[in-house]
Write a structure and sequence with these properties.
mainly beta
Length: 97
């Protein structure tokens, strides 16, 4: 069952902000290193959660008040959920859920 805020699909997803265009890449990403690691034009996201069925990364504007996009991490290896988000630069505000 999909929740109202669940924007995950198999297609690339985009969120547009003043300076930010994001696309969740489903063809890239690594289960390590853990955390959010900027690589080139995006970031690898790898999060450990034994009990979660899905993990989302939420991207916010510069104020941290407006959510620009929410993406489900598309891959899982053991307890590590992971994916690659194109367009994230150092200083991007994000949250994990």
């Amino acid at each position: 069952m999909r929740h109202r805020g669940d924007r995950s699909t198999h297609r690339p997803q985009r969120a547009n902000g003043d300076h930010l265009t994001l696309r969740l890449s489903t063809s890239e990403g690594q289960p390590s290193p853990l955390g959010v690691t900027c690589i080139g034009d995006g970031a690898n996201v790898a999060v450990v959660s034994r009990h979660a069925t899905r993990v989302f990364i939420c991207i916010f504007d510069e104020t941290g008040k407006l959510e620009l996009g929410r993406f489900a991490l598309p891959f899982r290896l053991g307890d590590v959920h992971y994916g690659f988000v194109d367009g994230i630069v150092p200083g991007t505000r994000y949250g994990l859920r």
